[in-house]
Amino acid sequence: MKLAGKFSLLLFLAALTVTTLSAQAKPPVKQAAAAVPEHAGYQSALSDLNAARAYLNYLGANERIDVEETQAIDHIDKAMAKIKEIVKDEGLAGQSAPIDTQLKRGDRYRRALELVDKAERDCQHEKSDPRTNEMDHYARYHLGLAHKLVQQAIDNTAKAERGQR
Fold first, then answer.
1. How far apart (Å, rounded) are the C-alpha atoms in residues 119 and 45?
2. Does residue 153 sit within a domain?
3. Cβ atoms < 10 Å from Cβ of 21
4. What range defines the domain where residue 73 resides?
5. What's the pLDDT tens digit per position in 46-92?
6. For the domain that residue 136 is a member of, what is the CATH number?
7. Is residue 46 part of a domain?
8. Residue 146 maps to a domain
9. Can you spell out the DSSP letters for 25-73?
10. How many domains does the chain have?
11. Each residue of 6-46: pLDDT tens digit?
């Protein structure tokens, strides 16, 4: 064989070897997606409920706690206890961001209502587990009652503000 033919054969064999080796190589490993914590919806709900509770519990100068606030806080506490039971972690505090203490009372109530509603949506997004369905229903029942009581507090505050003008 001539030198050019031998060189061509050598290039062909080299290309064949590279192709074979690359086909046998393992595919690139994909990086795992960020792990979603178990019960992320319930953890988020606990944070929201802690903040809602703080908005309801905060009293400005010359303010007193109303019956609706007290009852709403009680229902929020019951919902939080059930959620903690569902996630089986008594130490799960559900941290919340500091509240805006500069808000007027009606605005604090509206913010608390938003957070109660968000917590209920967070609970709805959790996967259904037959073992915890009853506890989830109980927690959402108390969130519904808290919603009604906070809405009533908003309405009462609006009436009081209109009466002062």
1. 4
2. yes
3. 9
4. 40-164
5. 999 999 999 999 887 778 888 999 999 999 999 999 998 888 754 55
6. 1.20.1260
7. yes
8. yes
9. SPPPPPPPPPPPPTTHHHHHHHHHHHHHHHHHH---TT----HHHHHHH
10. 1
11. 656 555 655 656 555 555 555 554 444 444 456 788 888 99
